[in-house]
Amino acid sequence: MVIFLIIILILILIFAIIFLASFIFAALSAAPWLPTNRRQRRRLIELISLKPGQIVYDLGCGDGAVLFSLADKYSEAKFVGFEVSLLPYLIAIFRKFSRYNKYKNVSIKYKDFFKQDVREADLIFIFLTTKCYPRLVAKLSQEIKQNCLVVVEAWPLPDLKPINYIKEGGFMSLYFYQSAQFKNNN
Ligand SMILES: C[S@@+](CC[C@H](N)C(=O)[O-])C[C@H]1O[C@@H](n2cnc3c(N)ncnc32)[C@H](O)[C@@H]1O
Would you list the domain boundaries of the chain? Predict the structure, then answer.
């Protein structure tokens, strides 16, 4: 019985270490997990429009808060989230499979978004810390496709003038960029 308990405790410890390590990796790579709140998501939905078949990437999708909110409105668009922190990733997977028929158009991938080619995205959503911006902008400048819209929450990208931005009390700022700006930055 004691040995059994020790094995369970060791397993719990191993899982805790793996979860913590993935959280630390994400925080060091681009940002810790902080979901976009509901009011902010509603505001975002009001500000963008998606056509059927368009593809949205959320680079660091957390628990999928933004993707699932968008998928609620745009059932004919496609949503792909990339996440490396295990806890939010598993929550996002649970949310997808708990309403599988509704969220068939949402994919959640356990992947470092820096290793993902973003060429197919029509809209890229970013809510990350500024420390990863130089690397991210360099990546987008290489890969972004024509007419892709980049929406950045919280802090603007360096050296790029947004085509539009929203700063309102009670909301994090939202900055809108177009792919041509990244190409000119190259
Ligand atoms: C501030 S949260 C934003 C979550 C989500 N986009 C939202 O708005 O609700 C940033 C997320 O990026 C994830 N992340 C950080 N670095 C990453 C990387 N290199 N690849 C994939 N995900 C990453 C973190 O784990 C975290 O969940």
Answer: 2-184
Q: Looking at residues 8-30, what average pLDDT do you find?
A: 95
Mutation test residue for ligand 1: of 114, 127, 150, 152, the one with most atoms within 8 Å of CB:
127
CA Rg, the chain, in Å?
Answer: 18
Predicted pLDDT of residue 141 = 96
What tens digit of pLDDT does each residue of 139-148 get? 999 999 999 9
27 alpha carbon – ligand 1 mean position (Å): 8
Give me the sheet containing 164-166, strands edge to edge: 106-110, 78-83, 55-59, 123-126, 149-153, 174-178, 164-166
What residues line ligand 1, using a CB cutoff of 6 Å?
26, 29-31, 33-36, 58, 60-62, 65-66, 82-85, 88, 112-114, 127-128
Distance between CA atoms of residues 49 and 47, nearest Å: 7
Is 143 exposed, middle or buried, given 0-12, 13-18 or 19+ CB atoms closer than 10 A? middle
Homologous superfamily of domain range 2-184: Vaccinia Virus protein VP39 (3.40.50.150)
* Atom 8 of ligand 1, residue of closest alpha carbon: 36
Cα 22 from Cα 42, distance rounded (Å): 29
Rounded Cα distance between 30 and 128, Å, is 6
